[in-house]
Design a protein that fits this description.
alpha/beta, about 40% helix, Alpha/beta_knot_MTases, about 25% strand, Alpha/beta knot, about 140 residues, S-adenosyl-L-methionine, 5 strands, 5 helices, five-stranded parallel sheet
Length: about 140
Amino acid sequence: MLNISHYKIIAIGKIKKKWIQEGIEMYLKRLPGLEVKEIKDSTQAKEEHTIKEIISKNEFLVTLNENGQSFTSKQLATKLLNSHNQNITFVIGGASGLTSSLNNLASWQLSLSPLTFPHEIARLLLIEQLYRAKTIAQGGPYHKE
């Protein structure tokens, strides 16, 4: 069983588009316990410093990166199930992305797609995929094959 309260998302930048915010809010209602921390846009160095201050030593760091590992929804659900409820922090960069040193600190890098998305859409996609992984793990009807 996936324990969503073990997951956290650190995201750079505010959600400005109302339709994206509404989508995020809908999924967050379905994922009680998922923590989302928003960081103000700044320089990459300042963003990295702030992210490092937020991350605890016992957290498993996953950065989102178009060069990261791609998964099907079922593969992502399995990877998360196999993490044995570790505390996992997903980090979504802003317009300039994340520093290479932050990506190198990550336990693994996740690609939502080989396409590049605005950070707002990446956040919505990640939260939706966490919800989908939860329903797959529960054997729920949300995921169709």
